[in-house]
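Hey everyone, long-time lurker, first post.

I ran two proteins through the pipeline my lab uses and got sequence/structure pairs for each. Pasting them in order. The first:
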Amino acid sequence: MTESKMNLHPFHEVAANAERQMNQGAKVFQQWKCAHCGVKQTMPDEDRFYKFGRCEECDRYTNIEKDGCNFMAVWSNR
């Protein structure tokens, strides 16, 4: 497993920023880094933020609220 480079920021700051992006029409997907194996994870549910996540690689849980996260914004041109 390769450790991913990703900037993690405080959970509540990221959620507030994501909400601003959603209000402007973006779909957002929460991203976080596994505290155990370091693999970058992306939640499958758009416009939702979770405080805990289970790693798809090592099957262990990370406290995202404590460790921080980020998000991916998807914009569509209609």
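...and the second, right after it:
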Amino acid sequence: MIKPMIAGIALTAAAMSCASSFPYKYYGIWPSRDTLLAADPKNDLPLNLCEPDDSVKGKCVVLFVDQFDRLLADYISMKERLSKCEKNAK
């Protein structure tokens, strides 16, 4: 269970390095930790920030690595298509 998770984290980190302009913050969660892990450890956040309150019932969104990878691929594809479209419009 841990090995596939480590591989997924490594693949996601590699994908993010190729798409450094991905404008959304993302965090990982390691089992049995109470921390949201940022790409840079100095930006880690406490997991309790995700706890609901009276005004916001869902403060955090969770994606599995494969879903995140599809989101990232869709973002990169959309960015490339938009760039081509803008070049053709000139």
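Reply from user beta_strand_b:
Welcome! Quick read of the second one: Strands lie at 28-29, 35-37, 45-46. Residues 2-49+60-89 form one domain.
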